[in-house]
Amino acid sequence: MRAIVHTETGPSSVLRLVERELPEPGPWEVRVQLVRAGVNPTDWKFRAGNMRGDSEVTPGQDGAGVVDAVGSGVTEVTVGDRVWLVLAQHGRAHGTAAEFTVQPVSRVVPLPDGASYDLGASLGVPAVTAHRALTASEWGPTRLGPGALEGRTVLVQGGAGAVGNAAIQLARWSGATVVTTVSSPEKGELATAAGAHHVVNYREGDPAEEIKALVSEGVDIVVEVAPAQNDALDRAVLKVHGTVSIYANNGGEEVTLPLREVFSRNLRYQFLILYTLDESLLRAAVEDVTAAVSDGALRVGEDAGVPLHHYPLEETAAAHDAVEGGAVGKVLIDVARD
Predict the structure, then answer these.
(1) Which Pfam families does this entry report, sorted A to Z (predicted)?
(2) d(Cα 39, Cα 156) in Å, to the nearest integer?
(3) Which end of the chain, N or C, is surrounded by fewer C-beta atoms within 10 Å?
(4) Are residues 102 and 134 in the same domain?
(5) Same domain, 141 and 271
(6) What is the pTM of this model?
């Protein structure tokens, strides 16, 4: 099989295409023939300097394809099933930038009928992160679905990003009023296509005043990508008992909080990363994301606010560079030869 590997950290040039033996699934493992692989910021950051101790690594946490073989004890999927993958490289050396991957059955999820491989490979990191961000508040809910966020208002900072887009779609599916910030009219159009009720260009005027004018009662949850830059705005628009769900550190490494204001308003700051997420929370997210796909509530493509950028497997380095360079939308690797 063909696979992308790297044996050292560094720029995308450390990635190379090689031929490897077809891996065999062990007990409770599944072999998947990949059709698409998704590329996320975590992939290039891992390759650039956060590599684990394996002598050879195949990048890629997300992907979609067809079950090719199953090991003993596997009953959840069968050969021929269409599936999507979650955290495929977490805790192991070989991820989704390859024609085949062997994964624990817990990381292999049936892909609903009618859902494309493009969509399946776009779920994983963005959608599961968005799910946790929307379910991290102290008042609940712990699960998403129609009506789960009814009567609540969600502010998604950076709604044109992959996680931001997924958060807009999942919050809208769950009944929330969704406000999002963007940096340009073009990104505003993408956020509107994703389903945001209100779009605020934070580079024009006073975004806090504009948000408060749109939702005078305040915001229940902030899905936050740049806490160092946005904390003052977040505090200005949050309700008492509001939650800031922080999933990235774009624009700064440190946040300083005015403690009296924060604790007097019972604000909650929830930091989140998938790699240490409790397994029960991960499973809940996978189930809800799959349900949203079945309902047609999670989509990709220009009309869903997620432009798709395709690269062949042999150009995985260019795909990494596109994500590192801030490509708007979803970068996908076309793994299957056809």
Answers:
(1) ADH_N, ADH_zinc_N
(2) 22
(3) C
(4) no
(5) yes
(6) 0.96
- Return all residues near 214 (Cβ < 8 A) that are at least 6 apart: 179, 198, 200
Q: In the numeric block, which tokens belong to residue 289?
A: 């994301």
Among the listed residues 329, 336, 337, the one whose alpha carbon sits nearest the alpha carbon of residue 119: 329
In the block, residue with structure tokens 């389903």: 195
Q: Is the pLDDT of residue 42 over 80?
A: yes
Q: Are residues 133 and 262 in the same domain?
A: yes
What is the radius of gyration, based on Cα positions, of the chain?
20
Domain annotation covers residue 131? yes
Question: Residue 22, by phi and psi: left (phi above 0), alpha (psi -120 to 50) or beta?
Answer: beta
Confidence of residue 49 (pLDDT cuts 50, 70, 90): confident
Distance CA 187, CA 181 (A): 9
With 0-12 / 13-18 / 19 or more C-beta atoms within 10 angstroms meaning exposed / middle / buried, residue 213 is: exposed
- pLDDT by residue (tens digit) across 127-178? 999 999 999 987 878 999 999 999 999 999 999 999 999 999 999 999 999 9
The whole-angstrom separation of Cα 272 and Cα 248 is: 8
3-state secondary structure of 317: helix
Q: What is the pLDDT of residues 165-223, one digit of tens each?
A: 999 999 999 999 999 999 999 999 999 999 999 999 999 999 999 999 999 999 999 99
CATH of the domain at 329: 3.90.180.10
Measured distance CA(37)–CA(264) in Å, rounded = 46
What pLDDT is attached to residue 143?
96
Give the range of the structural domain holding residue 313, as residue numbers without chain letter.
2-122+306-334
N- to C-terminal Cα distance for the chain? 14
Query: 134 and 236 in one domain?
Result: yes
